[in-house]
Amino acid sequence: MTAASEALSSAGPRHIAIVMDGNGRWASKRMLPRTAGHHQGVEALRRVVTACVSRQVKVLTVFAFSSENWKRPADEVSGLMTLLAMVLAKEVPKLHKEGVRLQFVGAREYLSERVQIALLDAESHTRSNTALLLNVCFNYGGRWDIAQAAAKLAAAREPITEESLAQTLSTAHCGDPDLIIRTGGEMRLSNFLLWQAAYSELVFSDALWPDFDAQLLDDAIGAYLARERRFGLTSDQVSDAAERPS
Ligand code: IPE
Ligand code: IPE
Ligand code: MG
After folding, report:
1. What is the pLDDT of residues 131-163, one digit of tens each?
2. Nearest ligand (C-alpha, residue 142)
3. If you take atom 3 of ligand 2, which residue's CA is the nearest one?
4. What's the mean pLDDT in 11-32?
5. Does residue 172 surpass a pLDDT of 80?
């Protein structure tokens, strides 16, 4: 590998997205209610946010609640809504101190008015922070995202092109993830960032989300760094482009 291409490929991911899966199994293994797993999952997210800030990752997008998760038992769904409200109250000041900008991504009109106000407050309070953009996907689905973008363009009588759709998706403010990590051992996207994942590197971890930590994040980043992203080109073309002075 040439020095230039090594420099290029050793550039860490700017944008990491995570499917935080395995909370329920973590709790079941300990004979605890599933909600206890979700509470412990918040601690894992705290660790990963801090690790991302110190590794100069610029964007972290996490899947917290999918469009399909409403179908879970009512007590689990209400436990997750209560947890969201609690986390907003408790964690936003700490995240703000760390320089984290919070952005919620998803169909928020279905959430309670109280939670919607808390989301807006958290976003406006942290708007000027630049250390890390933390996108929390809540009531998010990749199909919803593509459909809402197409509907907006159609209503505005705008042409539907790859560019206009990308600019209207709920992630238009941050672009596509370089690396998508899924914990919990399943190898699927489960309706996460379907459009945006087109050229993301995928890394699957058997760790259950509440056990995830900075070391496992580094393992995933290590796997990412060992990949060659070709975007449809040949390997030679990628090396040539890396050697050319910019
Ligand atoms: C992910 O963990 C969190 C949410 C989907 C809200 P799960 O709750 O799906 O945990 P498992 O997959 O059942 O272990
Ligand atoms: C994906 O996990 C959604 C979140 C992590 C929020 P699920 O547990 O809902 O996915 P499936 O049902 O195993 O595909
Ligand atoms: Mg799951």
Report:
1. 999 999 999 999 999 999 999 999 999 999 999
2. 2
3. 66
4. 98
5. yes
Nearest to 5 by CA among 231, 232, 176, 225: 225
Under 8 Å between Cβ of 21 and 209 = yes
Of 64, 79, 86, the C-alpha closest to 34 is 79
Count Cβ atoms within 10 A of the Cβ of residue 194 and give its class: 0-12 exposed, 13-18 middle, 19 or more buried.
middle
Indicate whether 246 belongs to any domain: no
For residue 19, list its beta bridge partners: 63, 182
DSSP string, 215-232: HHHHHHHHHHHTS---TT
CA of 243 to the centre of ligand 1 (A): 44
Q: Is 20's C-beta closer than 6 angstroms to any atom of ligand 1?
A: yes
Percentages helix, strand, coil for the chain (3-state, rounded to 5) are 50, 15, 35
Decide if 200 contacts 182 (C-beta within 8 A).
no
* Distance between Cα 88 and ligand 3 center (Å): 22
Ligand nearest to the CA of 28: 1
- The pLDDT, as a whole number, for residue 223 is 98
Q: Computed from CA positions of residues 9, 14, 19, 24, in that sequence, does the dihedral angle turn out positive or negative?
A: positive
Report d(CA 185, CA 206) in Å as an integer.
4
Per the structure, how many domains does the chain have?
Answer: 1
Task: Flag whether 230 is in a domain.
Answer: no
Q: With H, G, I as helix, E, B as strand and everything else as coil, classify residue 159.
A: coil
Domain CATH code at residue 80: 3.40.1180.10
pTM of the model: 0.95
